[in-house]
Design a protein that fits this description.
The protein has 124 residues and is an all-alpha fold.
């Protein structure tokens, strides 16, 4: 509510004048007080998994964006994009199950909190 009052009385620029010093102070307190042990070990970046996930997501978004607007839902273009989406998703899942450190670990989907969208709804 304070942000709304400041914006109404002064202007939206003042939100930055108020929040930036508060943010700097809180960042300094966190940097000084929070000492977490950090295990040093080499990690491998899963470039292939990231590329497959990006491709599957991009083609899925193209299907949702272009389907029904630029091309009809049952057009060959949308069908081809949907097929590529399914193929890339399947390749990503197979890749995720084989790699030691995947982009999205399979254990994430075994966790009930992160795998069920209904468990994250605020009205449940």
């Amino acid at each position: 509510m304070l942000g709304g009052v400041i914006t109404d009385l002064l202007s939206w620029h003042w939100i930055f004048y108020v929040n930036l010093p508060v943010g700097v102070v809180s960042l300094a307190v966190i940097a000084r007080a929070l000492r977490r042990p950090f295990p040093r070990r080499a990690r491998r970046i899963d470039y292939a998994g990231a590329l497959l996930l990006t491709g599957a997501t991009a083609t899925f978004l193209l299907v949702l964006t272009l389907g029904g607007t630029k091309w009809p839902w049952l057009s060959p273009e949308i069908g081809g994009l949907a097929g590529i989406t399914v193929l890339l998703t399947a390749l990503f899942v197979l890749h995720m199950l084989r790699v030691p450190e995947p982009v999205l670990p399979p254990a994430l989907f075994r966790d009930r909190l992160s795998s069920s969208p209904a468990s994250c709804w605020p009205w449940r």
